[in-house]
Here is the input.
Amino acid sequence: MKANINEKEIQAMNKSFRILNERRRKLLGNPQTEELKKRVKKIREYSINHLNDLKEKALKKLEDNGMEVIYASDADEALKAIYAIVKDEKNVAKSKSNTASEIGISDLFKEKGIKLIETDLGDRIVQFTVKKKSSHPIGPAAHLDMGEIAGLLSKEFNRPVKEDPQEILNLVRQDVLEEIERCNIGITGANSLAAEDGSLVMVHNEGNISLVSMLDTHIIIVGIDKLVRTIEEAISVVKLETIYATGKKVPAYMNVISSPSKTADIEQILLNGMYGASRVVVVILDNGRSKALKSYPESLLCIGCGSCIVTCPIYSILGYDFGYNRHLGGRGVVFSRYLKNEQICYKSGLFTCTLCGQCTLDCPLEIRTNHFIQDLRCESINKGLYKDKHRKTAQKIKDKGSPFS
Amino acid sequence: MLYFRGCVVRDKLPHVGDATLKILDKAHIDYHVLEDEGCCGSFLLRTGFKDDALEVMKRNLGDLKDDMIVVSCAGCFNTLKNDYKELLGVELDVIHTSQLFRDLIKDGVLKPDKTSLTVCYHDPCHLGRHCGEYQAPRDVLDKITTLVEMENIKENSNCCGAGGGVKSAYPEIADKLASKRLKDFEGTDADLMVTSCSFCLLNLDNAFEQVNNKKDKDRKVKDLSEILLISLKDGN
Here is the structure.
Protein backbone atom coordinates (compact mmCIF):
# COMPACT_ATOMS: atom_id res chain seq x y z
CA MET A 1 0.00 0.00 0.00
CA LYS A 2 1.33 3.42 -0.89
CA ALA A 3 1.48 5.51 2.26
CA ASN A 4 1.55 9.25 1.81
CA ILE A 5 0.94 10.27 5.37
CA ASN A 6 3.88 10.13 7.75
CA GLU A 7 4.02 9.24 11.42
CA LYS A 8 4.36 12.85 12.56
CA GLU A 9 1.22 13.80 10.64
CA ILE A 10 -0.66 10.83 12.08
CA GLN A 11 0.26 11.88 15.59
CA ALA A 12 -0.74 15.51 15.04
CA MET A 13 -4.02 14.38 13.47
CA ASN A 14 -4.90 11.96 16.26
CA LYS A 15 -4.15 14.69 18.79
CA SER A 16 -6.45 17.14 16.96
CA PHE A 17 -9.16 14.49 16.74
CA ARG A 18 -8.90 13.72 20.46
CA ILE A 19 -9.48 17.39 21.30
CA LEU A 20 -12.35 17.60 18.82
CA ASN A 21 -13.91 14.44 20.21
CA GLU A 22 -13.74 15.71 23.79
CA ARG A 23 -15.48 18.91 22.72
CA ARG A 24 -18.12 17.05 20.73
CA ARG A 25 -18.94 14.59 23.48
CA LYS A 26 -20.55 17.30 25.56
CA LEU A 27 -23.06 18.05 22.82
CA LEU A 28 -23.64 14.58 21.43
CA GLY A 29 -26.38 12.62 23.08
CA ASN A 30 -28.08 15.60 24.68
CA PRO A 31 -31.85 15.80 24.05
CA GLN A 32 -31.67 18.81 21.69
CA THR A 33 -29.03 17.16 19.54
CA GLU A 34 -30.98 13.90 19.50
CA GLU A 35 -34.11 15.73 18.39
CA LEU A 36 -32.21 17.58 15.69
CA LYS A 37 -30.70 14.29 14.57
CA LYS A 38 -34.15 12.75 14.15
CA ARG A 39 -35.37 15.79 12.24
CA VAL A 40 -32.38 15.81 9.90
CA LYS A 41 -32.68 12.09 9.27
CA LYS A 42 -36.26 12.62 8.06
CA ILE A 43 -35.18 15.59 5.95
CA ARG A 44 -32.36 13.70 4.32
CA GLU A 45 -34.45 10.59 3.76
CA TYR A 46 -37.12 12.64 2.03
CA SER A 47 -34.40 14.24 -0.09
CA ILE A 48 -32.87 11.05 -1.38
CA ASN A 49 -36.30 9.56 -2.00
CA HIS A 50 -37.30 12.59 -4.08
CA LEU A 51 -33.95 13.59 -5.50
CA ASN A 52 -34.99 13.99 -9.12
CA ASP A 53 -38.00 16.04 -8.19
CA LEU A 54 -35.90 18.29 -5.95
CA LYS A 55 -33.28 18.63 -8.66
CA GLU A 56 -35.86 19.83 -11.19
CA LYS A 57 -37.35 22.22 -8.67
CA ALA A 58 -33.92 23.62 -7.78
CA LEU A 59 -32.92 24.14 -11.40
CA LYS A 60 -36.05 26.18 -12.01
CA LYS A 61 -36.19 28.06 -8.74
CA LEU A 62 -32.54 29.13 -8.73
CA GLU A 63 -33.04 30.53 -12.21
CA ASP A 64 -36.29 32.26 -11.22
CA ASN A 65 -34.31 33.92 -8.45
CA GLY A 66 -31.90 35.42 -10.96
CA MET A 67 -29.00 33.01 -10.72
CA GLU A 68 -27.46 31.14 -13.63
CA VAL A 69 -27.64 27.40 -13.26
CA ILE A 70 -25.40 24.80 -14.87
CA TYR A 71 -26.11 21.15 -14.45
CA ALA A 72 -22.91 19.12 -14.72
CA SER A 73 -23.25 15.37 -14.97
CA ASP A 74 -19.56 14.83 -14.29
CA ALA A 75 -16.36 16.57 -13.22
CA ASP A 76 -15.33 17.41 -16.80
CA GLU A 77 -18.59 19.17 -17.54
CA ALA A 78 -18.31 21.15 -14.32
CA LEU A 79 -14.72 22.14 -15.02
CA LYS A 80 -15.54 23.20 -18.57
CA ALA A 81 -18.40 25.37 -17.35
CA ILE A 82 -16.25 26.98 -14.67
CA TYR A 83 -13.35 27.56 -17.02
CA ALA A 84 -15.64 29.30 -19.49
CA ILE A 85 -16.39 31.84 -16.73
CA VAL A 86 -12.87 32.32 -15.36
CA LYS A 87 -10.78 32.00 -18.53
CA ASP A 88 -9.83 35.68 -18.76
CA GLU A 89 -8.93 36.03 -15.08
CA LYS A 90 -5.46 35.98 -13.56
CA ASN A 91 -6.58 35.50 -9.95
CA VAL A 92 -9.65 33.77 -8.57
CA ALA A 93 -10.58 33.49 -4.88
CA LYS A 94 -12.00 30.36 -3.36
CA SER A 95 -13.30 29.13 -0.04
CA LYS A 96 -12.73 25.55 1.03
CA SER A 97 -15.07 23.29 -0.88
CA ASN A 98 -14.80 19.54 -0.84
CA THR A 99 -16.93 19.39 -3.98
CA ALA A 100 -14.58 21.79 -5.80
CA SER A 101 -11.65 19.62 -4.72
CA GLU A 102 -13.51 16.51 -5.84
CA ILE A 103 -13.64 17.74 -9.44
CA GLY A 104 -9.97 18.78 -9.35
CA ILE A 105 -10.38 22.51 -9.65
CA SER A 106 -6.83 23.27 -8.48
CA ASP A 107 -5.32 21.14 -11.23
CA LEU A 108 -7.38 22.90 -13.88
CA PHE A 109 -6.35 26.36 -12.66
CA LYS A 110 -2.72 25.33 -12.44
CA GLU A 111 -2.82 23.95 -15.97
CA LYS A 112 -4.44 27.14 -17.27
CA GLY A 113 -2.10 29.45 -15.35
CA ILE A 114 -4.83 31.02 -13.22
CA LYS A 115 -3.88 31.67 -9.61
CA LEU A 116 -6.41 30.15 -7.20
CA ILE A 117 -6.41 31.85 -3.83
CA GLU A 118 -7.65 29.57 -1.11
CA THR A 119 -9.06 31.68 1.74
CA ASP A 120 -9.78 29.11 4.44
CA LEU A 121 -6.81 29.16 6.83
CA GLY A 122 -6.52 25.38 7.15
CA ASP A 123 -6.95 24.79 3.46
CA ARG A 124 -4.51 27.57 2.56
CA ILE A 125 -1.90 25.94 4.79
CA VAL A 126 -2.62 22.58 3.17
CA GLN A 127 -2.06 24.17 -0.27
CA PHE A 128 1.45 25.13 0.87
CA THR A 129 2.36 21.49 1.52
CA VAL A 130 3.87 19.33 -1.19
CA LYS A 131 1.18 16.67 -0.85
CA LYS A 132 -1.75 19.10 -0.64
CA LYS A 133 -3.69 16.54 1.38
CA SER A 134 -6.57 17.34 3.68
CA SER A 135 -7.22 15.14 6.72
CA HIS A 136 -10.70 16.31 7.76
CA PRO A 137 -13.53 17.85 5.73
CA ILE A 138 -13.92 20.82 8.07
CA GLY A 139 -10.43 21.01 9.58
CA PRO A 140 -8.21 20.14 6.62
CA ALA A 141 -4.90 20.85 8.38
CA ALA A 142 -5.65 18.61 11.38
CA HIS A 143 -2.53 16.56 10.59
CA LEU A 144 -0.10 19.49 10.69
CA ASP A 145 1.36 20.68 13.98
CA MET A 146 2.32 24.27 14.66
CA GLY A 147 6.02 23.73 13.96
CA GLU A 148 5.19 22.20 10.61
CA ILE A 149 2.83 25.08 9.76
CA ALA A 150 5.35 27.74 10.77
CA GLY A 151 7.95 25.98 8.63
CA LEU A 152 5.65 25.91 5.62
CA LEU A 153 4.85 29.60 5.96
CA SER A 154 8.51 30.56 6.44
CA LYS A 155 9.26 28.85 3.17
CA GLU A 156 6.24 30.28 1.37
CA PHE A 157 6.79 33.88 2.51
CA ASN A 158 10.54 33.66 2.54
CA ARG A 159 10.95 34.96 6.07
CA PRO A 160 11.08 33.47 9.52
CA VAL A 161 7.65 32.71 11.02
CA LYS A 162 7.37 32.04 14.73
CA GLU A 163 5.48 29.06 16.10
CA ASP A 164 2.79 31.37 17.31
CA PRO A 165 -0.84 30.80 16.26
CA GLN A 166 -1.73 34.50 16.27
CA GLU A 167 1.28 35.39 14.13
CA ILE A 168 0.37 32.61 11.69
CA LEU A 169 -3.23 33.88 11.50
CA ASN A 170 -2.14 37.49 10.95
CA LEU A 171 0.28 36.56 8.24
CA VAL A 172 -2.18 34.44 6.24
CA ARG A 173 -4.98 36.94 6.79
CA GLN A 174 -2.97 39.86 5.44
CA ASP A 175 -1.75 37.86 2.49
CA VAL A 176 -5.24 36.61 1.58
CA LEU A 177 -6.77 40.08 1.88
CA GLU A 178 -4.16 41.48 -0.49
CA GLU A 179 -4.72 38.65 -2.94
CA ILE A 180 -8.51 39.04 -2.86
CA GLU A 181 -8.12 42.68 -3.95
CA ARG A 182 -6.98 41.35 -7.31
CA CYS A 183 -9.93 38.95 -7.76
CA ASN A 184 -13.19 39.50 -9.62
CA ILE A 185 -14.50 36.00 -9.22
CA GLY A 186 -15.05 33.91 -6.11
CA ILE A 187 -15.73 30.18 -5.93
CA THR A 188 -17.42 28.50 -2.97
CA GLY A 189 -19.26 25.31 -2.22
CA ALA A 190 -22.54 25.12 -0.36
CA ASN A 191 -23.51 23.02 2.63
CA SER A 192 -27.13 22.73 1.63
CA LEU A 193 -29.33 23.60 -1.32
CA ALA A 194 -32.98 24.45 -0.66
CA ALA A 195 -34.80 23.45 -3.85
CA GLU A 196 -38.22 24.97 -3.20
CA ASP A 197 -36.75 28.32 -2.16
CA GLY A 198 -33.92 28.36 -4.68
CA SER A 199 -31.46 29.17 -1.91
CA LEU A 200 -28.02 27.98 -0.91
CA VAL A 201 -26.81 27.79 2.67
CA MET A 202 -23.13 28.03 3.51
CA VAL A 203 -21.54 27.81 6.92
CA HIS A 204 -18.14 29.14 7.92
CA ASN A 205 -16.33 30.36 10.96
CA GLU A 206 -13.65 32.59 9.48
CA GLY A 207 -15.89 34.91 7.46
CA ASN A 208 -14.05 33.98 4.29
CA ILE A 209 -17.18 32.86 2.43
CA SER A 210 -18.66 36.33 2.98
CA LEU A 211 -15.57 37.87 1.38
CA VAL A 212 -15.46 35.48 -1.54
CA SER A 213 -19.19 35.65 -2.24
CA MET A 214 -19.08 39.48 -2.43
CA LEU A 215 -16.83 39.52 -5.49
CA ASP A 216 -18.35 40.52 -8.87
CA THR A 217 -19.08 36.95 -9.87
CA HIS A 218 -19.81 34.18 -7.40
CA ILE A 219 -19.58 30.58 -8.60
CA ILE A 220 -21.13 27.99 -6.31
CA ILE A 221 -20.37 24.29 -6.79
CA VAL A 222 -22.83 21.98 -5.11
CA GLY A 223 -23.51 18.24 -5.36
CA ILE A 224 -27.05 16.96 -5.83
CA ASP A 225 -26.65 15.18 -2.50
CA LYS A 226 -26.99 18.58 -0.80
CA LEU A 227 -30.57 19.05 -1.93
CA VAL A 228 -33.32 19.59 0.63
CA ARG A 229 -36.74 21.22 0.32
CA THR A 230 -36.56 24.52 2.18
CA ILE A 231 -34.22 26.96 3.86
CA GLU A 232 -35.57 25.80 7.22
CA GLU A 233 -34.55 22.25 6.41
CA ALA A 234 -31.17 23.44 5.15
CA ILE A 235 -30.54 25.26 8.43
CA SER A 236 -31.34 22.09 10.40
CA VAL A 237 -28.89 20.15 8.28
CA VAL A 238 -26.02 22.61 8.65
CA LYS A 239 -26.64 22.98 12.37
CA LEU A 240 -26.28 19.25 12.87
CA GLU A 241 -23.25 19.20 10.59
CA THR A 242 -21.63 21.91 12.71
CA ILE A 243 -22.23 20.02 15.95
CA TYR A 244 -20.72 16.80 14.64
CA ALA A 245 -17.89 18.47 12.73
CA THR A 246 -16.70 21.00 15.26
CA GLY A 247 -18.32 20.32 18.62
CA LYS A 248 -19.90 23.77 18.54
CA LYS A 249 -23.64 24.28 18.48
CA VAL A 250 -23.61 26.91 15.76
CA PRO A 251 -21.00 28.18 13.33
CA ALA A 252 -19.89 31.82 13.38
CA TYR A 253 -21.65 32.46 10.08
CA MET A 254 -24.48 30.98 8.06
CA ASN A 255 -24.89 32.66 4.69
CA VAL A 256 -28.09 32.17 2.74
CA ILE A 257 -27.71 33.17 -0.89
CA SER A 258 -30.81 33.32 -3.07
CA SER A 259 -29.89 35.74 -5.86
CA PRO A 260 -27.26 38.21 -7.03
CA SER A 261 -26.92 41.40 -5.01
CA LYS A 262 -29.74 43.65 -6.20
CA THR A 263 -31.69 46.82 -5.59
CA ALA A 264 -34.95 48.33 -6.84
CA ASP A 265 -34.63 51.56 -4.95
CA ILE A 266 -34.72 53.77 -8.03
CA GLU A 267 -38.25 53.74 -9.40
CA GLN A 268 -38.47 50.00 -8.81
CA ILE A 269 -35.97 49.44 -11.58
CA LEU A 270 -34.14 46.22 -10.79
CA LEU A 271 -30.37 46.58 -10.78
CA ASN A 272 -27.84 43.86 -9.91
CA GLY A 273 -24.53 44.14 -8.09
CA MET A 274 -25.06 46.82 -5.48
CA TYR A 275 -22.43 45.57 -3.04
CA GLY A 276 -22.31 41.84 -3.56
CA ALA A 277 -22.01 39.67 -6.64
CA SER A 278 -23.79 40.91 -9.73
CA ARG A 279 -23.64 37.44 -11.17
CA VAL A 280 -24.18 34.17 -9.31
CA VAL A 281 -23.58 30.91 -11.14
CA VAL A 282 -24.63 27.66 -9.49
CA VAL A 283 -22.97 24.51 -10.78
CA ILE A 284 -25.05 21.53 -9.72
CA LEU A 285 -22.94 18.42 -9.85
CA ASP A 286 -23.92 14.79 -10.22
CA ASN A 287 -20.54 13.11 -10.77
CA GLY A 288 -21.60 9.60 -9.80
CA ARG A 289 -24.15 10.56 -7.18
CA SER A 290 -27.09 9.26 -9.24
CA LYS A 291 -25.25 5.98 -9.62
CA ALA A 292 -24.69 5.83 -5.86
CA LEU A 293 -28.37 6.59 -5.39
CA LYS A 294 -29.32 3.50 -7.38
CA SER A 295 -27.01 1.13 -5.48
CA TYR A 296 -26.65 2.62 -1.98
CA PRO A 297 -29.07 5.50 -1.51
CA GLU A 298 -28.17 5.53 2.17
CA SER A 299 -24.65 6.72 1.35
CA LEU A 300 -26.17 9.96 0.02
CA LEU A 301 -27.67 10.77 3.42
CA CYS A 302 -24.21 12.06 4.38
CA ILE A 303 -24.07 15.69 5.49
CA GLY A 304 -20.29 15.89 5.28
CA CYS A 305 -19.50 16.40 8.98
CA GLY A 306 -16.51 14.04 8.99
CA SER A 307 -17.59 12.44 12.25
CA CYS A 308 -17.00 8.97 10.78
CA ILE A 309 -13.26 9.49 10.39
CA VAL A 310 -12.64 11.01 13.82
CA THR A 311 -13.12 7.70 15.62
CA CYS A 312 -12.32 5.29 12.78
CA PRO A 313 -9.54 2.92 13.88
CA ILE A 314 -8.18 2.53 10.37
CA TYR A 315 -8.19 6.28 9.78
CA SER A 316 -6.19 6.68 12.99
CA ILE A 317 -3.45 4.58 11.39
CA LEU A 318 -3.71 5.50 7.70
CA GLY A 319 -5.14 9.02 7.84
CA TYR A 320 -6.03 10.53 4.49
CA ASP A 321 -4.61 7.50 2.69
CA PHE A 322 -7.86 5.74 3.67
CA GLY A 323 -10.47 7.19 1.33
CA TYR A 324 -10.52 8.94 -1.98
CA ASN A 325 -9.43 12.52 -2.50
CA ARG A 326 -11.52 14.66 -0.15
CA HIS A 327 -13.97 11.83 0.44
CA LEU A 328 -12.20 10.48 3.47
CA GLY A 329 -12.51 7.21 5.38
CA GLY A 330 -14.78 4.27 4.71
CA ARG A 331 -17.65 6.31 3.33
CA GLY A 332 -15.18 7.94 0.97
CA VAL A 333 -14.12 4.49 -0.18
CA VAL A 334 -17.76 3.60 -0.90
CA PHE A 335 -18.35 6.92 -2.66
CA SER A 336 -15.24 6.52 -4.82
CA ARG A 337 -16.89 3.51 -6.46
CA TYR A 338 -19.48 5.87 -7.94
CA LEU A 339 -17.39 9.00 -8.37
CA LYS A 340 -14.82 6.95 -10.22
CA ASN A 341 -14.82 3.16 -10.61
CA GLU A 342 -14.02 -0.22 -9.04
CA GLN A 343 -10.25 0.19 -9.46
CA ILE A 344 -10.17 3.53 -7.63
CA CYS A 345 -12.44 2.10 -4.95
CA TYR A 346 -10.06 -0.84 -4.49
CA LYS A 347 -7.07 1.48 -4.27
CA SER A 348 -8.86 3.81 -1.84
CA GLY A 349 -8.84 1.10 0.81
CA LEU A 350 -11.78 -1.20 0.10
CA PHE A 351 -9.99 -4.04 1.90
CA THR A 352 -8.37 -2.09 4.75
CA CYS A 353 -11.59 -1.64 6.74
CA THR A 354 -12.08 -3.96 9.74
CA LEU A 355 -15.87 -3.51 9.38
CA CYS A 356 -15.94 -2.60 13.07
CA GLY A 357 -19.04 -0.39 12.70
CA GLN A 358 -17.76 2.51 14.82
CA CYS A 359 -18.43 4.96 11.98
CA THR A 360 -22.11 4.01 11.85
CA LEU A 361 -22.42 4.58 15.56
CA ASP A 362 -20.80 8.00 15.33
CA CYS A 363 -22.62 9.08 12.15
CA PRO A 364 -25.53 11.46 12.79
CA LEU A 365 -27.36 9.71 9.93
CA GLU A 366 -26.26 6.21 11.02
CA ILE A 367 -24.98 5.30 7.56
CA ARG A 368 -24.06 1.61 7.54
CA THR A 369 -20.78 1.97 5.73
CA ASN A 370 -19.44 -1.41 6.85
CA HIS A 371 -22.34 -3.16 5.10
CA PHE A 372 -21.67 -1.32 1.86
CA ILE A 373 -17.96 -2.05 2.04
CA GLN A 374 -18.72 -5.73 2.53
CA ASP A 375 -21.04 -5.70 -0.51
CA LEU A 376 -18.58 -3.76 -2.64
CA ARG A 377 -15.89 -6.31 -1.82
CA CYS A 378 -18.04 -8.98 -3.54
CA GLU A 379 -18.32 -6.81 -6.61
CA SER A 380 -14.60 -6.08 -6.51
CA ILE A 381 -13.71 -9.77 -6.34
CA ASN A 382 -15.93 -10.49 -9.31
CA LYS A 383 -13.92 -7.86 -11.21
CA GLY A 384 -10.69 -9.59 -10.22
CA LEU A 385 -9.72 -6.96 -7.64
CA TYR A 386 -8.93 -8.70 -4.35
CA LYS A 387 -6.12 -9.38 -1.91
CA ASP A 388 -4.13 -12.52 -2.73
CA LYS A 389 -3.98 -13.39 0.95
CA HIS A 390 -7.78 -13.39 1.11
CA ARG A 391 -8.09 -15.51 -2.00
CA LYS A 392 -5.66 -18.10 -0.60
CA THR A 393 -7.37 -18.13 2.78
CA ALA A 394 -10.77 -18.47 1.15
CA GLN A 395 -9.50 -21.47 -0.79
CA LYS A 396 -8.18 -23.10 2.39
CA ILE A 397 -11.52 -22.57 4.08
CA LYS A 398 -13.35 -24.12 1.16
CA ASP A 399 -10.99 -27.07 0.93
CA LYS A 400 -10.27 -27.77 4.56
CA GLY A 401 -12.76 -25.81 6.62
CA SER A 402 -10.19 -23.59 8.29
CA PRO A 403 -8.05 -20.59 7.34
CA PHE A 404 -5.17 -22.02 9.37
CA SER A 405 -4.92 -25.53 7.97
CA MET B 1 -26.34 -28.67 22.76
CA LEU B 2 -23.73 -28.19 20.07
CA TYR B 3 -20.53 -26.44 21.10
CA PHE B 4 -19.32 -24.76 17.89
CA ARG B 5 -15.69 -23.98 18.58
CA GLY B 6 -14.84 -21.93 15.52
CA CYS B 7 -11.64 -22.11 13.49
CA VAL B 8 -9.47 -19.94 15.72
CA VAL B 9 -10.23 -21.97 18.83
CA ARG B 10 -9.84 -25.24 16.93
CA ASP B 11 -6.52 -24.44 15.36
CA LYS B 12 -4.93 -21.65 17.35
CA LEU B 13 -6.43 -21.41 20.83
CA PRO B 14 -7.29 -24.97 21.90
CA HIS B 15 -7.03 -23.92 25.56
CA VAL B 16 -10.15 -21.79 25.10
CA GLY B 17 -12.00 -24.82 23.78
CA ASP B 18 -10.70 -26.94 26.67
CA ALA B 19 -11.76 -24.38 29.28
CA THR B 20 -15.21 -24.10 27.71
CA LEU B 21 -15.69 -27.87 27.62
CA LYS B 22 -14.67 -28.15 31.27
CA ILE B 23 -17.21 -25.52 32.22
CA LEU B 24 -19.92 -27.30 30.23
CA ASP B 25 -18.98 -30.51 32.08
CA LYS B 26 -19.18 -28.77 35.44
CA ALA B 27 -22.61 -27.47 34.49
CA HIS B 28 -23.63 -31.02 33.48
CA ILE B 29 -24.65 -29.87 30.06
CA ASP B 30 -25.21 -32.55 27.49
CA TYR B 31 -23.13 -31.24 24.61
CA HIS B 32 -21.36 -32.47 21.55
CA VAL B 33 -18.79 -31.05 19.17
CA LEU B 34 -18.51 -31.66 15.47
CA GLU B 35 -15.55 -33.80 14.47
CA ASP B 36 -15.57 -32.27 11.02
CA GLU B 37 -16.59 -28.76 12.09
CA GLY B 38 -16.27 -26.35 9.17
CA CYS B 39 -15.99 -22.61 8.82
CA CYS B 40 -19.02 -20.56 9.90
CA GLY B 41 -18.60 -18.41 6.78
CA SER B 42 -17.57 -15.19 8.51
CA PHE B 43 -14.16 -14.72 6.93
CA LEU B 44 -15.56 -15.42 3.47
CA LEU B 45 -18.45 -12.99 3.93
CA ARG B 46 -16.33 -10.18 5.34
CA THR B 47 -13.69 -10.42 2.63
CA GLY B 48 -16.22 -10.47 -0.22
CA PHE B 49 -16.31 -14.17 -1.12
CA LYS B 50 -20.05 -14.30 -0.74
CA ASP B 51 -20.70 -17.18 -3.14
CA ASP B 52 -18.12 -19.32 -1.35
CA ALA B 53 -19.59 -18.26 1.97
CA LEU B 54 -23.08 -19.29 0.92
CA GLU B 55 -21.79 -22.69 -0.16
CA VAL B 56 -20.08 -23.24 3.19
CA MET B 57 -23.07 -21.94 5.16
CA LYS B 58 -25.52 -24.20 3.32
CA ARG B 59 -23.22 -27.14 3.97
CA ASN B 60 -23.28 -26.31 7.71
CA LEU B 61 -27.04 -26.04 7.92
CA GLY B 62 -27.64 -29.77 8.43
CA ASP B 63 -25.51 -29.73 11.57
CA LEU B 64 -26.74 -26.41 12.89
CA LYS B 65 -30.38 -25.91 12.26
CA ASP B 66 -32.05 -28.30 14.69
CA ASP B 67 -29.71 -27.86 17.61
CA MET B 68 -29.08 -25.32 20.30
CA ILE B 69 -25.66 -23.91 19.54
CA VAL B 70 -23.14 -22.27 21.83
CA VAL B 71 -20.15 -20.47 20.33
CA SER B 72 -16.92 -19.06 21.73
CA CYS B 73 -16.09 -16.65 18.96
CA ALA B 74 -17.97 -13.37 18.62
CA GLY B 75 -17.40 -13.52 14.85
CA CYS B 76 -19.07 -16.94 14.60
CA PHE B 77 -21.87 -15.69 16.85
CA ASN B 78 -22.64 -12.66 14.69
CA THR B 79 -22.53 -14.79 11.56
CA LEU B 80 -24.71 -17.63 12.87
CA LYS B 81 -27.16 -15.22 14.47
CA ASN B 82 -27.44 -12.53 11.80
CA ASP B 83 -26.00 -13.63 8.46
CA TYR B 84 -27.68 -17.05 8.34
CA LYS B 85 -30.96 -15.28 8.91
CA GLU B 86 -30.33 -12.52 6.41
CA LEU B 87 -28.83 -14.64 3.64
CA LEU B 88 -30.45 -18.05 4.12
CA GLY B 89 -33.60 -17.07 5.98
CA VAL B 90 -32.76 -19.51 8.79
CA GLU B 91 -33.05 -18.42 12.38
CA LEU B 92 -30.52 -20.50 14.30
CA ASP B 93 -30.87 -21.13 18.01
CA VAL B 94 -27.49 -19.74 18.96
CA ILE B 95 -26.07 -18.34 22.16
CA HIS B 96 -22.65 -16.91 22.94
CA THR B 97 -20.59 -18.49 25.73
CA SER B 98 -20.74 -15.23 27.71
CA GLN B 99 -24.55 -15.40 27.65
CA LEU B 100 -24.63 -19.07 28.56
CA PHE B 101 -22.18 -18.52 31.43
CA ARG B 102 -24.22 -15.61 32.73
CA ASP B 103 -27.40 -17.70 32.66
CA LEU B 104 -25.75 -20.68 34.34
CA ILE B 105 -24.50 -18.48 37.16
CA LYS B 106 -27.82 -16.68 37.48
CA ASP B 107 -29.69 -19.99 37.69
CA GLY B 108 -27.30 -21.29 40.30
CA VAL B 109 -26.04 -24.10 38.10
CA LEU B 110 -22.53 -22.73 38.34
CA LYS B 111 -21.37 -21.28 41.65
CA PRO B 112 -18.09 -19.58 40.97
CA ASP B 113 -15.90 -18.02 43.66
CA LYS B 114 -14.77 -14.46 43.52
CA THR B 115 -11.10 -14.54 42.58
CA SER B 116 -8.50 -11.97 43.56
CA LEU B 117 -8.05 -11.00 39.91
CA THR B 118 -8.56 -7.49 38.67
CA VAL B 119 -9.50 -7.52 35.01
CA CYS B 120 -10.76 -5.27 32.27
CA TYR B 121 -12.98 -6.35 29.40
CA HIS B 122 -12.45 -5.74 25.69
CA ASP B 123 -15.75 -5.58 23.75
CA PRO B 124 -15.40 -7.40 20.43
CA CYS B 125 -17.03 -5.51 17.54
CA HIS B 126 -18.97 -8.61 16.50
CA LEU B 127 -20.51 -9.17 19.92
CA GLY B 128 -20.89 -5.53 20.95
CA ARG B 129 -21.67 -3.14 18.13
CA HIS B 130 -22.97 -5.85 15.79
CA CYS B 131 -25.07 -7.88 18.23
CA GLY B 132 -25.62 -5.37 21.03
CA GLU B 133 -24.28 -7.67 23.76
CA TYR B 134 -22.17 -5.65 26.17
CA GLN B 135 -23.54 -6.78 29.50
CA ALA B 136 -23.42 -10.59 29.66
CA PRO B 137 -19.62 -10.87 29.85
CA ARG B 138 -19.53 -8.00 32.37
CA ASP B 139 -22.14 -9.74 34.55
CA VAL B 140 -19.94 -12.84 34.62
CA LEU B 141 -16.76 -10.88 35.34
CA ASP B 142 -18.47 -8.87 38.06
CA LYS B 143 -19.20 -12.12 39.90
CA ILE B 144 -15.74 -13.62 39.66
CA THR B 145 -13.25 -10.74 39.46
CA THR B 146 -12.86 -7.09 40.21
CA LEU B 147 -13.85 -5.55 36.91
CA VAL B 148 -12.31 -2.22 36.02
CA GLU B 149 -12.98 -0.47 32.74
CA MET B 150 -10.55 0.79 30.11
CA GLU B 151 -11.06 3.92 28.08
CA ASN B 152 -13.18 3.34 24.97
CA ILE B 153 -15.60 0.60 25.93
CA LYS B 154 -18.98 -0.80 24.97
CA GLU B 155 -20.36 1.12 21.95
CA ASN B 156 -17.10 3.04 21.68
CA SER B 157 -14.84 0.06 22.08
CA ASN B 158 -11.64 0.38 20.11
CA CYS B 159 -11.44 -2.32 17.45
CA CYS B 160 -8.64 -4.84 18.05
CA GLY B 161 -7.67 -4.47 14.39
CA ALA B 162 -8.12 -8.05 13.23
CA GLY B 163 -11.57 -8.02 11.64
CA GLY B 164 -12.72 -7.80 8.04
CA GLY B 165 -9.70 -9.67 6.71
CA VAL B 166 -7.32 -6.93 7.86
CA LYS B 167 -5.18 -9.27 9.93
CA SER B 168 -4.46 -11.50 6.97
CA ALA B 169 -4.00 -8.84 4.29
CA TYR B 170 -2.56 -6.00 6.37
CA PRO B 171 -0.96 -7.56 9.46
CA GLU B 172 0.92 -4.32 10.20
CA ILE B 173 -2.36 -2.42 10.61
CA ALA B 174 -3.79 -5.18 12.81
CA ASP B 175 -0.64 -5.06 14.96
CA LYS B 176 -0.76 -1.30 15.36
CA LEU B 177 -4.41 -1.32 16.40
CA ALA B 178 -3.90 -4.19 18.83
CA SER B 179 -0.96 -2.30 20.39
CA LYS B 180 -3.19 0.74 20.79
CA ARG B 181 -5.79 -1.39 22.55
CA LEU B 182 -3.09 -2.77 24.85
CA LYS B 183 -2.26 0.82 25.79
CA ASP B 184 -5.88 1.24 26.93
CA PHE B 185 -5.37 -1.89 29.05
CA GLU B 186 -2.09 -0.60 30.47
CA GLY B 187 -3.92 2.54 31.53
CA THR B 188 -5.91 0.50 34.07
CA ASP B 189 -4.98 -1.40 37.23
CA ALA B 190 -6.09 -4.67 35.67
CA ASP B 191 -3.91 -7.77 35.84
CA LEU B 192 -5.53 -9.24 32.78
CA MET B 193 -7.49 -8.20 29.73
CA VAL B 194 -10.47 -10.45 29.11
CA THR B 195 -12.40 -10.75 25.90
CA SER B 196 -15.01 -13.02 24.36
CA CYS B 197 -13.89 -13.29 20.77
CA SER B 198 -11.21 -15.73 19.72
CA PHE B 199 -10.17 -13.52 16.82
CA CYS B 200 -9.67 -10.49 19.09
CA LEU B 201 -7.89 -12.72 21.58
CA LEU B 202 -5.49 -14.04 18.96
CA ASN B 203 -4.67 -10.60 17.65
CA LEU B 204 -4.28 -8.95 21.05
CA ASP B 205 -2.22 -11.90 22.26
CA ASN B 206 0.10 -11.64 19.24
CA ALA B 207 0.56 -7.93 19.85
CA PHE B 208 1.24 -8.54 23.52
CA GLU B 209 3.86 -11.10 22.64
CA GLN B 210 5.53 -8.74 20.21
CA VAL B 211 5.56 -5.84 22.63
CA ASN B 212 6.69 -7.81 25.64
CA ASN B 213 8.63 -10.57 24.00
CA LYS B 214 6.83 -13.13 26.08
CA LYS B 215 5.41 -16.51 25.24
CA ASP B 216 2.48 -18.47 26.64
CA LYS B 217 3.53 -18.41 30.30
CA ASP B 218 2.66 -14.79 30.93
CA ARG B 219 -0.34 -14.38 28.71
CA LYS B 220 -2.20 -11.28 29.76
CA VAL B 221 -5.12 -11.55 27.36
CA LYS B 222 -7.62 -14.26 28.20
CA ASP B 223 -10.93 -15.59 27.08
CA LEU B 224 -13.83 -15.27 29.50
CA SER B 225 -13.99 -19.07 29.77
CA GLU B 226 -10.45 -19.27 31.11
CA ILE B 227 -11.22 -16.86 33.92
CA LEU B 228 -14.52 -18.54 34.76
CA LEU B 229 -12.75 -21.89 34.94
CA ILE B 230 -10.26 -20.47 37.46
CA SER B 231 -13.15 -19.30 39.62
CA LEU B 232 -14.74 -22.75 39.45
CA LYS B 233 -11.60 -24.65 40.39
CA ASP B 234 -12.63 -25.59 43.91
CA GLY B 235 -15.76 -27.62 44.25
CA ASN B 236 -18.80 -26.91 42.07
